[in-house]
Amino acid sequence: MWNYSEKVKQHFFTPKNAKAVDHANAIGDVGSISCGDALRLSLKVNPDSDVIEDAGFQTFGCGSAIASSSALTEMIIGRTIDQAMSISNQDIADFLDGLPPEKMHCSVMGMEALHAAVAQYRGEEVAEEHEEGELICKCFAIDDALIKRVVAQNKLETLEDVINYTKAGGACAACHEKIEWVLEECLGAPLAEPEPVKANPAGATSIVARIRIIEQTLEQVRPQLQADGGDIQLSDVDDDMVFVSLTGACSGCGLSAGTLAMIEQKISQALGETITVYPVGAASLA
Amino acid sequence: MSTLTTLTNQTELAYLDNNATTQVDQAVLQEMLPFLSEFYGNPSSIHRFGSQVGQAIEKAREQVQKLIGASHASEVIFTSCATEASATAILSAVEAFPSRKDIVTSVIEHPATLQLCQMLERKGYTIHWIGVDQRGRLDMEAYKAALSDNVAIASFMWANNETGSLFPIRGMAELAKQHGIVFHTDAVQVAGKLPIQVADSGIDLLSISGHKFHAPKGIGALYLRRGAKFRPLLRGGHQERGRRAGTENSSGIVGLGKAAELAMQSIEQDSARIKLMRDRLEMGLLARVPNCFVTGDPKHRVPNTSNIAFEFVEGESILLMLDQHGIAASSGSACTSGSLEPSHVMRAMEIPYTAAHGAIRFSLSRFTTEAMVDQVLAVLPGIVEKLRMLSPYWDVTTNQPASESFSPVYA
Lengths: 286, 411
Fold this sequence. Notes:
Strand content of chain A: 15-25%
Distance between the termini of chain A: 28 Å
Oligomer: heterodimer
Strand content of chain B: 5-15%
Strand order of the largest sheet of chain A: 1-2-3
Order of helices and strands of chain A: HEEEHHHHEEHHHHEEHE
Helix content of chain B: 25-40%
Low-confidence stretches of chain B: 333-337
């Protein structure tokens, strides 16, 4: 069980404002039942003063999701919309005397619900799902815009941080590489311009850089494989092991060992280190 | 002074998480204590300090032999846990049959098997992941189709740790034999709960764990059929006749032996009594709480386990509120484990998200009492109702789900 603060427990066991506000003029919905947590925030805002006169929440989720929702309503009642909008997810976590790192996404959910409700109140057009950016995490339907926003607001630096704060990448892990790219972009590391594949005498540094070089090498050989009715996908990189799946005509081809040897040589050359390429099945645990 | 809060002498506590771990039986503890104090010799030593410990280990081996119905005590190897036992089984087969590059297992295995097979898959082995239906029953046609002379080992759990559902292990082992495939079963959730007779089965290897049936944590065993081709996982000393190097966990082994003996003495009476309590708990909850259902195979499962999915509520919230009432259970949901998705077992059974997040496992033992069951029946319906009242997916005015409810159809 998580080590929750007394205040989290207090707001979980005896939540405040757990209701749908009567005659609400601002409603924000975030999350979904498939994601394991969802929050509907309803507000009654005085249109003359922009003061939030009442706030209520309905939450499906874990202890910290319910506590974060309760805390949020306590924090915003009596404030103007502008004052409420200055609240960050960290403020919600601080109000609760902290959340476990793995539960910070619950505070982000509160902040997102508030933004959605205010957007509705202001009559702003809310972007269609993922209209803002590229869908990164399919399991939890999280796009790069949300990741970038949360990374900036919370000064996140690692993949683990992003998972804890957004849930992106918290399930099947297939998007971890993409998240690291987004993270790298946020942190200002060089990106975008595809670098020519060249030998790296010092050995490639970060895992992201190594994966990019491996991907570029595979891109080079791909047309040749596709011309023969096959293809190749990068499956995993673990230390000096590169796992790929051969598909189409390449899968089960009698010459696949030679193909893999060629790819191994090219990747080794590009990375400037000796690696081994292992074939794996395309299908795994879905 | 210990910083741990003592849980003893608090009669209101209800521990219903016995598939996670069990209370060490006092008789087991008493048997172990001398091996943590006066009998400290190394069993490999030839002097009397060692030999008396060695004799105790051989007695424990015979006790475990009887629990699993093995023909020979020497077919039992002691390990540190069931994870080690299962890893030994699978990696032994892979090494012993290097020309066979396929492995057959299921998608609902314990992570001890799942992650090992995923690692082997990355190394180039072909893993046949056999699926299950909504009740958690193995796709037997897919299983049969996966068996071939290329398969080194078929490894399947006997009972699922979340739902308690049983795979037809004996029949599966016989099918594997037709292709000369080593057959291993992870019997962690069966040992001590149902009778096991490996001697007349096609099972070659079988893993058990002590702490699942009132022995301490950190001790397990692997049954290895005499004559089966075997390669040790741990090499070094000559312990366990060279099949598992490493100085023996003497006290743990003695405890495991005693726990096996105790289980053998009362397995039928305990199982019958536990099943009655389990069924009363289950039927009571189903009657008192709308929109919930039992997951897994209600007809074919171990007698101590009930996994109930409560729709439109999230498991961790239920567990927190149960804990406040002194009740310990378990959730296949996400948040408790640090993972964010419902368990792979719920996903494999295609339990919809509306219910999978709210699946709660109750697992009983011979120390479970009727009062504990009453306690759950008294508080859980109110907890579910309270959480549903908080949920955007529940219509408080009609006290009905706001979205479509799931009604499992079990063919």
